[in-house]
Amino acid sequence: FVEGPLSGKHVLVTSGPTHEPIDPVRYIANRSSGAQGTAIATALRDLGARVTFVTGPADVPPPAGVDVVRVQTAQQMLDATLAALPADVAVMAAAVADWRVENASGSKMKKDASGAAPVLSFAENPDILKTVAQGTTRPRLVVGFAAETDDVTAHATAKRGRKGCDWIVANDVSPATGIMGGSENSVTLITDAGAEDWPRLSKAETARRLAVRIAEALR
Ligand code: C5P
């Protein structure tokens, strides 16, 4: 570990999408490259933290020097997250699928000769952020994310209350922003003191600023 303001601290980071199987070869998922979560884990590591990085199937490789736990589904992500506690800080950057396919098939579904399309039914996935923020082994600082396409600050502020987390990092993921899958981000940090608009920065710089804020909050 490098020496830094987060030396001796354990930080849990969730990142990437989850994949919810339809059958062995098909799934539903959220759009998430895992780039911002990976950058955050990197920045926290660079400030000296011991990082547990729970990641769904992301487009970018996980950082070196962190404990990587690879998962596919939301249920697996919840189990891995709870197994990683206790932690001083949790940063929940994963784009968790809200629903899983309740009638997933154990074998590959075949096209029906009659042309009938399959009907999927969905069950709600556990809310990992809420479980951690309202759980008994609650980290001192719990940070959630909010990807919104309109009224970003209002929705994210409401989400902070609903989830019971300390901070929300909100971003506008409207297609026109190019943020989804891109290398830059433009976030609003929601804390108990209100909303702070950060400038458009690289995801790496956004992550470094967030890591510094986390270190300050723990001081
Ligand atoms: O409710 P929504 O998905 O918009 O909330 C986003 C925040 O909640 C993110 O921090 C995300 O990682 C977390 N989340 C979660 N488990 C879910 C859904 C969202 O941890 N099932």
Main sheet characteristics: 8 strands, mixed
Mean pLDDT: 95
Q: What would you report as the Rg, rounded to the nearest angstrom?
A: 18 Å
Strand order of the largest sheet: 5-4-1-6-9-10-12-13
Task: Tell me which CATH architecture applies here.
Answer: 3-Layer(aba) Sandwich
Derived from helix and strand composition plus strand pairing, the structural class reads alpha/beta
Q: What is bound: which ligands?
A: cytidine-5'-monophosphate
Q: Kindly give the count of domains.
A: 1
Distance between the termini: 19 Å
Strand fraction: 25-35%
- Fourth-level CATH superfamily: CoaB-like
Q: Helix and strand string, N-terminal first? A: EEEHEEHEEEHEHEEEEEH
CATH structural fold name: Rossmann fold
Stretches where pLDDT falls below 50 for ≥5 residues?
Answer: none
C-alpha geometry: globular
How much helical structure, as a percent, in the residues?
25-40%
Total E-strand runs: 14
The number of helical elements comes to: 5
CATH class: Alpha Beta
Catalytic activity: (R)-4'-phosphopantothenate + L-cysteine + CTP = N-[(R)-4-phosphopantothenoyl]-L-cysteine + CMP + diphosphate + H(+); N-[(R)-4-phosphopantothenoyl]-L-cysteine + H(+) = (R)-4'-phosphopantetheine + CO2
Protein name: Coenzyme A biosynthesis bifunctional protein CoaBC
Pathway: Cofactor biosynthesis; coenzyme A biosynthesis; CoA from (R)-pantothenate: step 3/5; Cofactor biosynthesis; coenzyme A biosynthesis; CoA from (R)-pantothenate: step 2/5
GO molecular function, one term: phosphopantothenoylcysteine decarboxylase activity
